[in-house]
């Protein structure tokens, strides 16, 4: 016993001696233009000789509206396109939401470049990374990564800048911009690299470069006569092979074909040791597990994603809206009835979104692979319920079902049905909180859920994202939070503010969201006390151990990402 204790002591002692000799580099990253560590100009010159494109100096696009005007800037063009998600994604220094371009100092001062020039605030760089690489190939990414490691730079990977927690910006950091990696290829008999050649895969696969956005992926899918599981938003500007899929990726087709991660056959990725890896079920299967749901900007720089595709399918769009609820009780009965119906709709593989508050309710549903008659039969009892509940009390009820031959054509009509909320998601200041609702909760507590959500007194977006095929995947076969396999709905609440709002005003909006968060318990958000559990569930420890294998120097760290608890709030310095 004594001997064992002594041995343990010695082992522990040796460990601490080893780790002393092995101290990891500096505690803090080198930030832009820090004279004590920032690489000299000739080092950037030699980096640029290794790249296919010149180095970039991203600026907030709004800077074109300030003197001395950026020679290539055009303020009229900026104002015209400010709310266009595709235009914003084209600018290296633009984030989808203005506020992730800004930086709030601890003393409350804000460094920003407001679109509203009448505020009279000078334009500053904020959180936009001031320098970076416009990567077009894995070799470009390798050179960028090796340079960042050598000089201990703080790295930000950016594809479209749509991240909802601002994970693709970072004050003083070095950007690896993957937006221009636009290759697409189709393979009618895809064989994963390293896979057994005695097996036939029969996969009709689409391989997308890391800069491909959903509008481009859908056009490619359609041109090959195949359907690909992806997101929906105004302009379809979200990245199809970057943050969306690394975080899981839900789609109106998910109840039919699973989440985006359930459809990935292979990734290519550059690690922090600047190696290019092909990652699939046979090659680096641990990393393949982790990349499917372990989050963007965490394991390496993805350069391409290969997706399985599906045969073309007809689909029905279901539109129902109720305006001007005459009483809270009627709103409660409609929302509660709708939530109680969600398990049935999920079993029919419907996707879509409902939005509601105490004055209105709307549902835009997508029913793939169903006839108009089948869709009508499924929704009619709810329509009858709504008509009866609102009979004679003055609400406006509108209902229609529209058949489409192709989901790609349907998407345009679906997005149009979402109206202003979706079209104005770019070029705003805002944050959101959200939570997955398990099937069991909806089956048993739909009245309480409706009551709680309506009680918040704000607009709720409720995405029909889970169930069906999503619930049939073995939760432990991939890194994604296993909570997805039991979930049906994803409830989202957002808050926003005008340009120029001071830190006190911004914190007021944030506090309101924190209040919603408290009400909805374990919501996943900026303020999540235990992001590990909320975002990753009991897969967190394994995800972290895989991160440590492939990124031992912690080059890739993002807000509330795997391993981020080892860093301070700004992700500039390791915690002591
Ligand atoms: C208008 C809108 C609509 C949306 N609709 C949907 C939807 O229908 N379904 C859904 O599931 N989600 C949806 N989202 C959420 C969206 O999936 C996330 O915001 C996602 O993080 C965006 O990924 P991105 O690569 O486009 O954005 P970015 O902000 O560029 O990147 C997001 C994260 O991924 C990292 N990253 C980017 N590129 C790479 C790369 N090449 N390699 C490794 N890491 C990388 C970044 O560092 C960052 O952490 C929507 C978001 C918006 C703003
Ligand atoms: C600036 O942008 C506007 C709107 O896109 C365009 O009409 C105009 O020609 C542009 N001006 C210059 C100098 O490029
Ligand atoms: C984004 O850039 C691409 C490539 O230059 C261009 O074809 C596209 O029109 C741009 N989109 C917008 C909305 O400006
Ligand atoms: C707040 O802090 C920043 C950074 O240290 C500094 O530049 C700024 O002047 C400060 N603002 C005020 C009002 O003290
Ligand atoms: C811009 O700021 C000015 C000054 O605060 C304000 O009066 C105006 O309403 C703002 N414009 C917009 C579009 O928000
Ligand atoms: C993109 O495709 C072209 C043509 O097939 C090829 O030459 C190029 O190497 C590809 N680029 C990447 C990054 O895969
Ligand atoms: C392919 O070969 C492997 C290894 O030899 C074997 O385990 C597997 O069963 C084979 N598969 C088929 C479909 O024959
Ligand atoms: C009815 O609802 C519409 C749209 O939601 C709204 O614009 C209008 O003001 C409402 N009317 C009344 C009387 O509340
Ligand atoms: C119609 O609504 C009333 C209350 O408004 C309710 O008592 C009745 O049960 C409803 N009927 C049906 C068929 O839903
Ligand atoms: C912040 O703005 C609000 C509203 O405009 C104002 O009342 C408040 O005094 C401002 N606070 C600070 C610290 O400037």
Automatic annotation (TrEMBL):
InterPro entries: BBE (IPR012951), FAD-bd_PCMH (IPR016166), FAD-bd_PCMH-like_sf (IPR036318), FAD-bd_PCMH_sub2 (IPR016169), FAD-linked_Oxidoreductases_BP (IPR050432), Oxid_FAD_bind_N (IPR006094), Oxy_OxRdtase_FAD_BS (IPR006093). Residues 1-19 form the signal peptide. The keyword Cell inner membrane does not apply. One of its GO terms (molecular function) is oxidoreductase activity. Pfam families: BBE, FAD_binding_4. Keywords: Oxidoreductase, Signal. It comes from the Eukaryota. PROSITE patterns: FAD_PCMH, OX2_COVAL_FAD. Residues 125-312 form the FAD-binding PCMH-type domain. Belongs to the oxygen-dependent FAD-linked oxidoreductase family. This is FAD-binding PCMH-type domain-containing protein. It comes from Rhodocollybia butyracea. The lineage of its organism: Eukaryota, Fungi, Dikarya, Basidiomycota, Agaricomycotina.
């Amino acid at each position: 016993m004594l001997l064992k204790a002594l041995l343990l002591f010695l082992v522990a002692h040796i460990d601490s001696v080893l780790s002393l000799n092995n101290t990891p580099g500096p505690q803090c990253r080198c930030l832009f233009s820090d004279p004590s560590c920032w690489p000299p100009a000739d080092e950037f010159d030699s980096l640029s000789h290794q790249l296919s494109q010149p180095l970039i100096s991203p600026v907030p696009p709004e800077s074109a509206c300030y003197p001395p005007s950026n020679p290539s800037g055009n303020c009229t063009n900026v104002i015209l396109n400010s709310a266009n998600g595709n235009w914003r994604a084209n600018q290296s220094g633009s984030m989808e939401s203005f506020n992730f371009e800004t930086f709030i100092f601890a003393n409350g001062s804000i460094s920003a470049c407001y679109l509203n020039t009448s505020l009279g605030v000078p334009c500053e760089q904020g959180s936009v990374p001031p320098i970076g690489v416009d990567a077009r190939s894995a070799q470009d990414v390798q050179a960028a990564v090796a340079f960042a490691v050598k000089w201990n730079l703080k790295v930000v990977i950016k594809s479209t800048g749509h991240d909802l927690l601002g994970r693709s910006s970072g004050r003083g950091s070095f950007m690896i911009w993957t937006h221009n990696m636009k290759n697409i290829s189709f393979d009618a008999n895809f064989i994963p690299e390293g896979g057994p050649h005695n097996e036939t895969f029969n996969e009709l696969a689409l391989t997308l470069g890391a800069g491909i956005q959903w509008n481009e992926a859908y056009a490619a899918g359609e041109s090959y006569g195949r359907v690909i599981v992806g997101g929906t938003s105004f302009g379809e500007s979200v990245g199809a092979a970057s943050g969306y899929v690394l975080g899981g990726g839900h789609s109106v087709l998910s109840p039919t074909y699973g989440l985006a991660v359930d459809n990935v056959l292979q990734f290519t990725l550059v690690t922090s040791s600047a190696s290019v890896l092909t990652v699939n079920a046979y090659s680096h299967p641990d990393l393949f597990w982790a990349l499917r749901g372990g989050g963007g900007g965490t394991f390496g720089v993805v350069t391409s994603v290969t997706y399985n595709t599906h045969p073309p399918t007809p689909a029905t769009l279901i539109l129902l809206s109720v305006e001007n609820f005459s009483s809270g009780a009627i709103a409660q009965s409609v929302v509660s009835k709708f939530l109680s119906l969600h398990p049935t709709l999920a079993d029919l593989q419907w996707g879509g979104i409902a939005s509601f508050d105490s004055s209105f309710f709307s549902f835009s549903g997508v029913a793939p692979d169903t006839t108009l008659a089948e869709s009508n039969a499924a929704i009619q009892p709810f329509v009858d319920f709504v008509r009866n509940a609102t009979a004679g009390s003055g609400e406006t009820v509108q209902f229609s079902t529209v058949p489409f031959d192709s989901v790609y054509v349907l998407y345009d009509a679906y997005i149009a049905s979402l109206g202003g909320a979706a079209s104005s998601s770019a070029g705003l200041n805002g944050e959101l909180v959200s939570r997955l609702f398990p099937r069991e909760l909806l089956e048993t507590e739909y009245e309480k859920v409706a009551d709680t959500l309506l009680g918040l007194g704000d607009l709720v977006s409720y995405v029909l994202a889970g169930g069906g095929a999503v619930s049939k995947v073995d939760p432990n076969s991939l890194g994604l939070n296993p909570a997805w396999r039991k979930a049906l709905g994803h409830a989202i609440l957002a808050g926003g503010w005008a340009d120029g709002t001071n830190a006190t005003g911004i914190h007021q909006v944030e506090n309101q969201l924190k209040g919603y968060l408290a009400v909805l318990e374990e919501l996943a958000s900026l303020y999540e006390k235990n992001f590990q559990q909320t975002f990753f569930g009991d897969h967190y420890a394994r995800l972290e151990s895989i991160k440590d294998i492939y990124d031992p120097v912690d080059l890739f760290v993002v807000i509330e990402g795997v391993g981020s608890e080892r860093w301070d709030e700004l992700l500039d310095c390791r915690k002591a």
